[in-house]
Amino acid sequence: MILQVVEAKYDRDYVVRFKFNDGAEGFVDLADELYGEMFAPLRDMQKFKAFKVDPELNTIVWENGADLAPEFLRDRLLVPSQPTNQSNPQ
C-alpha cells in the first residue's frame, strides 16, 4: 500500500493532526522542520496554517511549493493517548 495523507487539520503552534490511509492518526509537530529555502517562510504562522492536502501528491502542501512526504510525516506521528478502561470486567 502506498502511504497517503487523507486528512490534515491545523491544531496549534506548528502542530498538525493527520489521518493516513493505513488507519493511523495523530499529531506531528513541525516546528523543528521549518528551515531552509522552502520551509523557513512557513515560520510565519499565517503561511504555515495555509496548507492543504493535495489530491495528486496525497500529502500536505503549501502555496510556495513546499510539501512533506507522507512517510516522513507518519514516522513523526505522535499518537494521542487512548483512555484506559479502569473497570474490572467479570
Describe, in plain words, how this protein is organized in 3D.
The chain is of the alpha+beta class. The chain has one domain: 2-Layer Sandwich (NE0471 N-terminal domain-like). The protein has 3 helices and 5 strands. The strands form 2 sheets. A 3-stranded antiparallel sheet has the order 1-2-3. Strands 4-5 form a two-stranded antiparallel sheet. The radius of gyration is 15 Å and the shape is globular. The protein starts with a strand and ends in a 15-residue tail after the last helix. The C terminus is likely disordered.
SSE layout:
Blueprint: E1 5-12, E2 15-20, E3 25-29, H1 36-39, H2 45-49, E4 52-54, E5 59-61, H3 70-75
Antiparallel strand pairs: 1-2, 2-3, 4-5
Find the CATH superfamily: NE0471-like N-terminal domain
Gap between N and C termini: 40 Å
The CATH class, by name, is Alpha Beta
Number of beta strands: 5
> What is the beta-strand fraction?
25-35%
Helix content: 10-25%
Quick check: average pLDDT?
91
CATH topology category name: NE0471 N-terminal domain-like
Categorize the overall geometry: globular
CATH architecture: 2-Layer Sandwich
> Strands of the largest sheet, in order across it?
1-2-3
Secondary-structure content class: alpha+beta
Count structural domains: 1
Given as residue ranges, the uncertain stretches (5+ residues, pLDDT < 50) are 82-90
Helix-strand topology string: EEEHHEEH
Give me the number of helical elements: 3
Largest sheet: 3 strands, antiparallel
Rg calc: 15 Å
